[in-house]
Every structure is written in structure tokens, then in C-alpha cells.
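Subject: for your reference before the review

Hello V.,

The reviewers asked for a structural picture of the protein, and I figured it would be easier to keep everything in one thread rather than splitting it across files. Below is the amino acid sequence we used in the manuscript, unchanged from the supplementary table.
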Amino acid sequence: MGKIHSKMVMLFLCLFSLTCFASAPPMSLAPMIEKASPAIVNIRAQIKVSDFETYMRLQKERQMQGNKGEIPNTVVSIASGVIVDAEKGYILTNAHVIADAQAINLILSDGRHFNAKLIGFDKPSDIALLQIKAKNLTAIPISDSNNLKVGDIVAAIGNPFGLNQTVTSGIVSALGRTALGIESFENFIQTDTSINPGNSGGALINVNGELVGINTAILAPNQGNIGIGFAIPSNMAKSVMSQLIQYGNVHRGVLGIGAQDITPELATAFNLNAKKGAVITLVMPNSPAALAGMQPGDIITAINNAPVKNANEVVNIIAFLRVDSKASINVLRNNKSFSFNIVITDPKKRKELSEKVDPFLYGVGLKDLSLVSPIHGTVNGVLVLSVEEDSNAWRAGMIPGDVIVSVNQQKTTDLVSLKKVVGTANTKLLLNVLRGVGAVFLLVTTEQ
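And here is what came back from the structure prediction:
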């Protein structure tokens, strides 16, 4: 009787569980898709193949779509876009989608057709902003992509292979993907959501139907989807969009440092408790960082009150600060906290300042050299390591590998003696340099 009673209890529990599952509403992503889909547009850009870069990009896209043969002079690039402002008709997409476009045509989810105006684009981040004049548009809310977590459910909406309003779903596989060589500034959301050619510029949305990313690239060996797609975070896209609306471009400033990640080994070497941050490895002369007093060995912990985890975050934060923007940078120096208020300046200003400090040899990398040459004998001079294009020395014909041995017909044996003579020069500098097995005179002038 005891055994029969136990079996009856188990049978009842099983039947109860099945009844509960049967009565529960089925799980569905339909509500989030229904909310976001009206904001997704189909883009058809007529692109003139005018240069090799465009030709190679289009050829790669055609191969991924299974198309073969020669690329014609004008092709149609099929992609996606996202309406982010219904009142003003602003639409986000990828810059590579509309680069070199002669005309940009949009098809809305309700079937309406429009010609789009290009407000601006930024190739380094691969973000472009379009605009149409239309009524009754639906915009997608933009979410804070910093709130994303690995494992969050996401969906991609776009027009893969020209198939309108296609939805795929998956999860966030990783965050902050960098060093992929896809764009100049990378901070990608990685997802296993199926993304294919034509999805570029489309929306990556969260479970609330909000925009968290702009789909931009896939890893696709043998032209197939392997579940590794990348999206530009919505915060990055929003930052670029605001500059495109205000200025029509993104005018990036420069801080003037080199940096690397803090590893456990470096943290130990610097006697740090924290394992996050970026250590400054280089401070460029006459840069905003140098003028503010930053030094190699400083550990950057935050920029504009945003914690910094690694060197790539420093690059991305500074890259999206416009010229003349202010940056508050917190660092650790010998485990003591310092704060620098720096104005991010135009790279041209650094060049102008460097030229003002040293009009003859700005943009030239130099080091002392001492060697015994079978041709020139014992040589004590200054080795040219690098020459910046369009500098006065470059225009005079100086090249890396030159060895400066005299300045204005005065013997030069090292950097100290070189700078001493250069400091007394007026508008012309006569250099005698050893070059290979021979030697030449170069006339560096500040007169244009």
C-alpha cells in the first residue's frame, strides 16, 4: 500500500506540473519586436566605384552574398538603418554603407519610399546619420549600453540579403571587444545573434525593445554565419550622432599619450592594490598631457568621473571628445592621487607649437650616434630616426638614416652641440649629413 501511495503522489505531481506548464503563456519575443520593428528601415545606396578601397570593400560584400563576376561602375549597397528621432527624421546606420553613395533610398516598414539626406558620417567609428522628411514615423528608444551584461537576451532586426524586416535572436556573448581591425575605434558588443550581409546599420535591441547597438560586422569564414557578430554600442553611436547633428562631422582632439593595460605583473611592479587602469608609457612633447604635467608611469584611473579599466577605454573616451573639450583625468603617481584638468586640442595646434619651439627640426626624431665606418672612419654625430611628412626638414629632403655631422659649417658630435647651433640660426640651417656611402648638404629653411 505504501508503494502504491507513493506512485499515486508522483503521478499527481507530474500531472500538476504539466497542467501548470500548459496554462502558462508561451515565452515570446514578439512584444519587443513589435515595439522596435517600425523603426527599422531598408537602405539602398547607389555607390559609384571610384577608388580601390571602395572596389575591395564591395567585392568582399558581393563574395559574402555569393555574387561573382566583375563589379560594375555603379552598384547598389543593401543595408539597414534605425529611426532614432521621429520628429526630425534622423536615422542611424553604418558609414561604410553610404560611403561614396550618389543617392540613398529608404524603404520604411510600412512600405513608404524616401530619398534620404546625408547629415554626416564618421568612418573611424563607422557611424552615419541620415534624415528624411516624413510624417508618422516611429523612433526606437535608445538604451544605455553600459548597462548591458554578458548573457543578456538581444535581437537583431534588419534586412539580411535584402530580406525585409528579418529578426534573429541570441545573447550578448562578450563586451568591449577590441583589436579586431574592423574600425579605428573599437568597443564592440559581441553577440551570437545571427547577423548577415544587409544587417549592417540595423538595430540590436534588448528585451524592452530598446536600441543597445548598431550591427556592423561579422566573422564569417567561408561566407557563412558562425554566431559571432559585432555591434557598435548605443552610447558610442549616440555620442557620434550628437556631433554629426551639431557640426556635420567628428573633429577629434588629441591628448598626446601612449598607454597600456595594467596587468597583474605591472600592478605588482607599481605596488598597486587595484588591477584596473591604464599606465602612461609615453607623453608626447608639446601635447596637452605634457603641458598639464602628466608623466610616464602615471596610472589613469578615471576620465570625466568614468572609471577606466584598460588602455582601450582611454583611447575610446578621448576619441569621442571634440576639439577644445575639457577632460578631468584622475591618475595614481607613486600611489598618490592626482587630478589633471586638460583641454583636448587639435593635433594641428601641437604641430604649430612644436614648430614654434623648433622651426627647423620639429617632427624629426634624433639620437646621438657613435660608430666606426669603413668608409667614413670614426663618426660622432646625430642619427635621424624619423621625419614627419610636410615638416621643414622633410621638405628639405631629410630622410631616416641620415647622420648629421655639421650644422652651418660647425662640427656637430651630439644632440647638445646640434641644439646649440640650431638655437642661434635665423631662417636657414645648412646641414651636412652622411647618407649611405656618401654625403650631402641639406638646406632647411623656415621661409615658405
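For the response letter, the relevant points are probably these. The chain has three domains: 32-247, 257-348, 358-445. Residues 2-23 form the longest helix (22 residues).

Happy to draft the paragraph if you're swamped.

O.
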